[in-house]
Amino acid sequence: MTIANPNLDERPRDGRGHGAAPDAERRIGGPSLPQRRNLVTEIPGPRSRELLARKSAAVPQGVSVSLPIFTDVAGGGVVVDVDGNTLIDLGTGIAVTGVGNADPGVAAAVQAQVERFTHTCFMVTGYDGYVEVAEALNRLTPGDHDKRTALFSTGSEAVENAVKIARSYTGRSAVVAFDHAYHGRTNLTMALTAKAMPYKLGFGPFAPEIYRAPLSYPYRDGLDGTTAAARAIQLIEKQIGASQVAALLIEPIQGEGGFIVPAPGFLTALAAWAKENGVVFIADEVQTGFARTGRMFASEHEGLVPDLITTAKGIAGGLPLAAVTGRAEIMDAPHKGGLGGTYGGNPVACAAALATIAAYEHDGLIERAAEIGTLLMDRLVDLQSSDPRVGDVRGRGAMVAIELVDPSTGEPDPELTARVAAGAHARGVILLTCGTFGNVIRFLPPFSISDELLHDGLDVVREALEAA
């Protein structure tokens, strides 16, 4: 196993495998964890197996655990399980802990807020943290127009409220989502989500007035962005009618659907059509937001200025927080009391978000995500050149994926994908899969990971692919 900066004090000053000035230092969160992969038991170890048995007796089977370990501590680029195994984290809790787990600034902000108060409900008595997070998101999200932000607890809530706001503003009911989309697990967001298993199967009936249009999927359809957009727009106009559409909802880069990056021009053409027809253009940046793609928001890669943007995951360093940010006139459309929730914009989560946003803005994490993307693409394109089962390599920044296929037919190979993921897990790497066909391996490392540790993780993936 490659040893990457085994002692905290020996880590380069910027904590990511490069030299940097002392004032750029970011300490690894939690205890001083050795930043190397180290297995002392099989995966899962005896204590994790014991907890898995307890989980089976206490938790419904619908709540699954992808990797059969239980975490003890985490920080930097590693997760240490209850058996003392140190695993490389290439998942960040599904794109949540971009700043690193137990980031010191986040931990300090949370502790200070907990000592002040933990909850009042913003709809009962206000507090400064909520307003400060709203101000930050109004400033950071694309566009210099007047904006408003409402805070919630989960990405699903954010998407659902964005739809409510769009319907209130337009007086229309139809909402257009896209093939391969994932938008959440509530009733409305399940309707918006494309994949049946495991998200929708057996949970209907779903919310009405949801329609689906074809996505730009360059690897599969071969269409340029303009042509793909014209195909989608024609379907919308013929089957729904532009005058009936309240909102067009899309992920700038799809997450659960397979890290699909639409062809250039696809998103901008859809946004232009929406503007021409009085349709609210909603960018779901729950997974792509907050430096994940090498920009603060993925919309920036194509110069998109969404009417509404939904965020969550990377917003608060691991605490539950989500937001809808958008044009003031749209956000102000719902009546007083029409938006909110008991826990929406919880003060502890807001404190974590302010510390997290400060880290993105001032600690070079956006640039680090872009560097990670270059490293990932270089390594994975090299892997593709030597293994025809890697059909496609795609993504932006620290959000990159490989699509595994049968090389003789180009058809998705979910069985191979599952074997590779299991092999990586057994070797000490947290690796996630995704995709409508279950044949995509996604890479979501924390921005605090060192180059050495990332290379080691990618070496393990190569080994697991060869073994499979």
In short:
This protein is of the alpha/beta class and 468 residues long.
Please characterize this protein's 3D structure.
By secondary structure, this protein is of the alpha/beta class. The protein has two domains: 8-102 and 364-467, Aspartate Aminotransferase, domain 1, CATH 3.90.1150.10; 107-362, Type I PLP-dependent aspartate aminotransferase-like (Major domain) (Aspartate Aminotransferase, domain 2, 3-Layer(aba) Sandwich). The chain is 36% helix and 15% strand. Helix 3 (104-116) runs antiparallel to helix 11 (347-362). The two termini are 20 Å apart. The model is unreliable at 1-27 (pLDDT under 50).
Secondary-structure map:
Layout: H1 46-58, E1 71-75, E2 78-81, E3 86-89, H2 92-95, H3 104-116, H4 128-140, E4 147-152, H5 155-170, E5 174-178, H6 187-192, E6 210-213, H7 218-221, H8 225-239, E7 245-250, H9 266-276, E8 280-284, E9 308-311, E10 322-327, H10 328-331, H11 347-362, H12 365-386, E11 390-396, E12 399-404, H13 414-426, E13 429-430, E14 432-434, E15 440-443, H14 451-467
Parallel strand pairs: 3-13, 5-6, 5-7, 7-8, 8-9
Antiparallel strand pairs: 1-2, 2-3, 4-10, 9-10, 11-12, 12-15, 14-15
